[in-house]
Amino acid sequence: MSKILIIEDEEAIADLEKDYLELSDFEVAIENTGDKGLETALSGKFDLVILDLMLPGMDGFEVCKKIREEKNIPIIMVSAKKDDIDKIRGLGLGADDYMTKPFSPSELVARVKAHMARYDRLVGSSQKMNDIIEIRGLKIDKTARRVYVNGEERIFTTKEFDLLTFLAENPNHVYSKEELFREIWDMDSIGDIATVTVHIKKIREKIEFDTAKPQYIETIWGVGYRFKI
Amino acid sequence: MSKILIIEDEEAIADLEKDYLELSDFEVAIENTGDKGLETALSGKFDLVILDLMLPGMDGFEVCKKIREEKNIPIIMVSAKKDDIDKIRGLGLGADDYMTKPFSPSELVARVKAHMARYDRLVGSSQKMNDIIEIRGLKIDKTARRVYVNGEERIFTTKEFDLLTFLAENPNHVYSKEELFREIWDMDSIGDIATVTVHIKKIREKIEFDTAKPQYIETIWGVGYRFKI
DNA sequence: GCATTTTTTAATAAATTTTTTATAAGTTTA
DNA sequence: TAAACTTATAAAAAATTTATTAAAAAATGC
What's the burial of B37, exposed, middle or buried (CB within 10 Å: 0-12/13-18/19+)? Predict the structure, then answer.
């Protein structure tokens, strides 16, 4: 579930926004000063910030700039004055959206959803965050480091597991043996790349029905390997 | 330098936008129908699209949806009616911004810059490469290294894929066999150029309906080959 | 420190791609 | 239209890449 931080000193407005957002299944927290707002935003617990321009303590400009120095999360700036909006837009502080009060709560919700969707789309939080990857008969439990094929567990060694997981997390992307080596072995692949081939073979023996006709890890001749989704 | 595609049927407006964007050092192309706009947007050469809602042929809604199915690049939707804007925002088509005509050119430029900046910030120049090239029935997925003709996958070897991709990325440009050899084989063409001909033939067998009347890769007699757009 | 497991290396076999070659077919030009 | 030249086609030979196997080396656990 997504978490939203509202930084706003007018309590009535903040509560109204909170109510509407909660109706759309967001989890909402409120801070009413710039300093505390900034601190909370930087805690890393929130997925989006709604930030009022006029604040006691540090003002909205400054808060926005400081958040942006450390975080890429969407920031929606809110102001009572249309002129202010034009001004901050021009400043290029890195806010993602601007709204003039008063605005309809449903518009706020729509904008929040749109920004979340874009952020997910671009940053791609989808499958990578999940602990369990499931593709056809294959199930990878990342925290438990277990692999199941059609419900039956297969025992994987460390490197095998890491390699399979990396490929499964980035399906449909062709990786060269060099790239895979760098990724899993954390080394600039001056070393020998042959070990990647051997590991691929061992993984295939464990997850494929017929290693000659792989259903999961395909060979792209002359290029590398690709996890087929 | 960033490339912007304007999809707009009113020539005067499109030209005005173009002029202003060019003053800010963007490279700008204009399409004036929905269908052509979509095709160009999917070509993979543009970093941002400015899309009018009212268009001859396919309308802006549809174009937006179709672009979003394959591309994550920013889309700014433009409409004469405020009501339309509210409507499309609600639809969640995946547009990144909405502007109501008339708007000041400087505001357009500011928004374009803001969207570019965010896109770069979130996606990072690493992954930013345009993955999918689509021209008529032909679709090339560069990271997956897959080619589809009318939705059906065709299996390509490395050299075939590289050659096709190079030509498709540089359409309407005639390349001699020597140039293609240098480009794909990374060699000063001391070697034999005949292999280019053979590869072209193999590619045509896979993507053309009738290899004697190629729709994609044309032969320019005595000169070389050209990918027709 | 020893036994066991995992990882890497290395050599060979198998598979696939790429290039070469020869010939046919199509254009251009005089 | 014939000659000269360029490209298309097909098939084989060559080169490259990956799969497989087994054994050596390294790491791990007790």
Answer: buried
